[in-house]
Write a structure and sequence with these properties.
By secondary structure, this protein is an alpha/beta fold. It has 2 domains: about 130 residues, HAD superfamily/HAD-like (Rossmann fold, 3-Layer(aba) Sandwich), CATH 3.40.50.1000; about 130 residues. The protein has 11 helices and 12 strands. The longest helix has 14 residues. It is globular. The termini are close together.
């Protein structure tokens, strides 16, 4: 039997530390769930910035994020959104914002560095609001690999299970993760929106007898529905949100449980 296992990365393969900053109030939100911020309004979106964090640290703090993106031709992608938002609209919102500065990004990065020791990677993003044409939040994510993640991937591969990673993150951060856990880059899908994850699962089902989707958030629901088996990991939070629990076929508290789950499916 030909089986594929698709893993989300943040919160599933990686223990994440997320911090957001409210641009209007200057307040910090620790252990924030980015999809919850995006879900507050229909026309909000999480934008992933394709940039080396060192470049951010060396910028003048008072420089606007919009000016930074324009000056250095920074690529930005929509990581997730409730409604479809085209790239032209995204760029227009970012360019029109006159409040969010590089200091805001530097602030959240500093908090994550303090909270996450032995950090594996760091990524930054923006929450945009199309209605107000503004950036209400900046967000920084730092992560480190769960201790059992390498064992799980290695065991599945040794049993001829095809392993894939589908994440809303960029290849800049996914590439070192894939190399660390020995997943070929051609099996890694970056900037995977909920719809794209669903399409990935459906495409894999054409070539596999069974496809298992393993995720931890609301942005994995469509893929879980499309999969033959949807697995919800609550290792990050220890909590099982009602909607996710209803959609998942199985709930796990440790990534290592996947090994036995897959063994039963063979």
């Amino acid at each position: 039997m030909k089986i594929a296992v698709v893993f989300d990365s943040a919160g599933t393969l990686l223990r994440m530390y997320r911090v957001a900053k409210n641009i209007k109030t200057g307040g910090f939100l620790n252990e924030v769930v980015s999809t919850e911020l995006v879900g507050k309004k229909p026309y909000c979106a999480l934008l992933v910035m394709q940039v080396d964090s060192n470049k951010l640290c060396n910028c003048p703090p008072d420089m606007l994020i919009s000016d930074f993106i324009r000056k250095y031709h920074i690529d930005i992608e929509v990581g997730c959104s409730r409604a479809q938002i085209d790239r032209t609209t995204v760029l227009s919102v970012v360019e029109n914002d006159t409040r969010a500065s590089m200091k805001d990004l530097q602030d959240v990065m500093a908090v994550v560095k303090r909270k996450c020791k032995n950090i594996f990677y760091m990524g930054v993003g923006l929450i945009i609001d199309v209605d107000t044409k503004s950036i209400p939040y900046v967000i920084c994510t730092g992560g480190k690999i769960y201790s059992n993640t390498p064992y799980v991937i290695k065991t599945l591969v040794e049993r001829d299970i095809n392993v894939y990673i589908a994440s809303g993150d960029s290849m800049r951060n996914l590439s070192p993760l894939a190399q660390n856990v020995c997943v070929p880059l051609e099996c890694v899908f970056e900037i995977s929106t909920p719809k794209k994850k669903e399409e990935i699962v459906k495409r894999l089902k054409q070539d596999h007898d069974k496809v298992i989707m393993v995720g931890d958030g609301i942005n994995d629901i469509l893929a879980m529905r499309a999969a033959d088996l949807g697995v919800l990991s609550i290792q990050q939070t220890g909590r099982c949100p009602p909607l996710l629990c209803e959609e998942a076929d199985i709930v796990i508290r440790d990534i290592k449980e996947i090994v036995d789950i897959v063994a039963k499916e063979v």
